[in-house]
């Protein structure tokens, strides 16, 4: 018997074959799409994706924390008036930002063996795309995968949108998730029904030849979007066109698509809990005492604890000799113990996230050295290597659509040229050592490569142009001789 996953895959495969045949739109086919979307939304994988997105925004499980005391029946019961701190110190979000910035915060370099082609690529995939890739990197860390959607906007320019992993249901044609055949973009839209604002779920099914659009009705069924059920990817006049490939490009964090939250959620929860409990204990007294009770006028100790927790006081009865009361042995809150535990948890989050402590004493000391820095960044570099390899695969797929766009703009066939992308990792600069190493490499490594690693240089091409300009200004005769006859002669 097929399990739920296999059943959903079977329905996806069936739906994909229907779409390829151009017959998508019958009631049974739309119902199959509804089941596929529902299975995805209820899956463990998507729930973890949503957890990553929520935790990044600071929405943690600590918000559900309650305080309890032993009730009259000996069972825990929630006590509303006890101090109940719900503190979030978002170490997870810090790790995501550090890891994304480490690889993607500095401008990357796109080059081709054709200079004109290089200029075109940098125009299309310029500063705006670099910022967008940072967003995709953040989403990939939170969900294990993100998606790029290239399209031609209303101005006729190539634009790119990012779909988060939790809002896109993919249909893969292989077990390794290397060939994406189609998929559904699931997103909410605010609208007004009978004068009241409501949220309507939209489902756009992307396939090779275009987009089929659906809306979820009030009874949960999917219905065709009456205004725009199907559209090609772009139009020229009255004719619609498609790319020749599905314009959805996965950006994986790693080959298994495992999000960062999977590694650190329990540690982040424990960290939040320890901080919150420490604040609770600092705000209350009686929880840090051992109570000695004489002639308590109550039914049992459970009631005593409940009255103390609720009212902050209890009623006692005197014996025949007039003796009664409640005394306490005070217990000091061990702040050092809390500090040790929280520091251990913080360290564990950094280690499991393969992140870096920006306040590490090796950085703040007066004489950091290159070997110490390298050792500190080994873990984060290891993850960056894996992520960079995945981005390169995504970049190669993106180039196909960039080339089709440039061809449509009249630049001819461009597929035969090699294209490389070079990432500049955000490592701390030990400037004197870096410059010394660059100087020692003159004549061994090309000037372009040396400038690309220089701490003062952001744009290699501009720097090379400026160097050439300064050389000509320093030697005016060189320009004059060149103007005579290219080789410095007077042509005689």
Q: Can you count the helices?
A: 16
Could you estimate the helical fraction of the residues in percent? 40-55%
List low-confidence stretches: 1-8, 480-492
Which structural class do the helices and strands define? alpha+beta
Rg for CA atoms: 32 Å
Work out the number of β strands: 17
Oligomer: single chain
Termini, distance in Å? 92 Å
Largest sheet: 6 strands, antiparallel
Shape: flat
Q: State mean pLDDT (0 to 100 scale).
A: 83
| Binned strand content | 15-25%
Please, could you describe this protein's structure?
Among the domains are: 4-42 and 145-252, no CATH class; 261-356, no CATH class. It has 16 helices and 17 strands. The protein has helices spanning 4-20, 27-41, 44-56, 91-104, 115-124, 127-143, 261-283, 301-311, 335-353, 361-364, 370-376, 378-408, 431-440, 447-452, 460-474, 476-485; strands at residues 68-70, 76-78, 109-112, 145-152, 158-164, 168-172, 180-193, 196-207, 210-216, 222-224, 230-231, 234-236, 239-241, 249-252, 289-294, 325-330, 419-422. It is flat. It starts with a helix and ends in a 7-residue tail after the last helix. Mean pLDDT is 83; it is low at 1-8 and 480-492.
């Amino acid at each position: 018997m097929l399990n739920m996953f296999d059943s959903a895959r079977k329905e996806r495969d069936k739906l994909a074959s229907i779409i390829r045949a151009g017959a998508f739109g019958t009631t049974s086919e739309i119902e199959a799409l509804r089941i596929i979307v529902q299975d995805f939304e209820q899956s463990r994988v998507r729930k973890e994706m949503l957890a990553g997105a929520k935790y990044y925004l600071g929405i943690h499980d600590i918000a559900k924390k309650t305080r309890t005391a032993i009730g009259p029946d000996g069972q825990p019961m929630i006590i509303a008036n006890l101090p109940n701190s719900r503190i979030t110190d978002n170490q997870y979000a810090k790790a995501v930002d550090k890891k994304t910035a480490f690889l993607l915060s500095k401008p990357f370099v796109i080059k081709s063996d054709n200079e004109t082609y290089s200029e075109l690529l940098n125009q299309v995939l310029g500063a705006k795309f670099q910022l967008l890739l940072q967003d995709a990197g953040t989403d990939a860390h939170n969900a294990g995968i993100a998606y790029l959607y290239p399209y031609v906007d209303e101005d006729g320019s190539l634009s790119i949108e990012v779909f988060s992993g939790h809002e896109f249901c993919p249909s893969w044609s292989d077990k390794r998730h290397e060939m994406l055949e189609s998929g559904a973009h699931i997103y909410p839209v605010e609208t007004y029904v009978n004068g009241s604002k409501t949220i309507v779920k939209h489902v756009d099914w992307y396939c090779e030849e275009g987009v089929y659009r659906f809306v979820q009705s009030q009874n949960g069924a999917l219905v065709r979007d009456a205004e725009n059920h199907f559209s090609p990817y772009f139009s020229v006049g009255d004719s619609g066109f498609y790319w020749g490939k599905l314009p959805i490009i996965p950006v994986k964090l790693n080959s298994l698509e495992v999000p960062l939250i999977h590694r650190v959620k329990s540690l982040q929860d424990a960290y939040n809990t320890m901080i919150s409990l420490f604040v609770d204990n600092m705000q209350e007294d009686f929880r840090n005492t051992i109570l000695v009770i004489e002639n308590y006028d109550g039914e049992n100790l459970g009631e005593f604890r409940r009255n103390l927790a609720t009212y902050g006081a209890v009623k006692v009865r005197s014996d025949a000799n007039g003796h009664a009361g409640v005394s306490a042995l005070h217990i000091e809150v061990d702040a050092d113990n809390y500090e040790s535990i929280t520091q251990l948890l913080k360290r564990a989050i950094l280690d499991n996230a393969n992140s870096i402590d920006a306040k590490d004493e090796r950085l703040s000391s007066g004489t950091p050295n290159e070997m110490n820095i390298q050792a500190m960044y080994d873990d984060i570099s290891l993850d960056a290597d894996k992520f960079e390899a995945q981005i390169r695969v995504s970049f190669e797929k993106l180039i196909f659509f960039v080339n089709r766009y440039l061809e449509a703009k009249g630049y001819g066939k461009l597929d035969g040229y090699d294209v490389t992308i070079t990432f500049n990792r955000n490592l701390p600069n030990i400037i004197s050592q870096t410059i010394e190493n660059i100087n020692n490499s003159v004549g061994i490594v090309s000037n372009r490569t040396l400038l690309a690693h220089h701490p003062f240089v952001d744009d290699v091409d501009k720097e090379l142009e400026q160097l050439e300009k300064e050389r000509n200004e320093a030697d005016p005769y060189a320009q004059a001789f060149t103007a005579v006859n290219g080789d410095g002669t007077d042509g005689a």
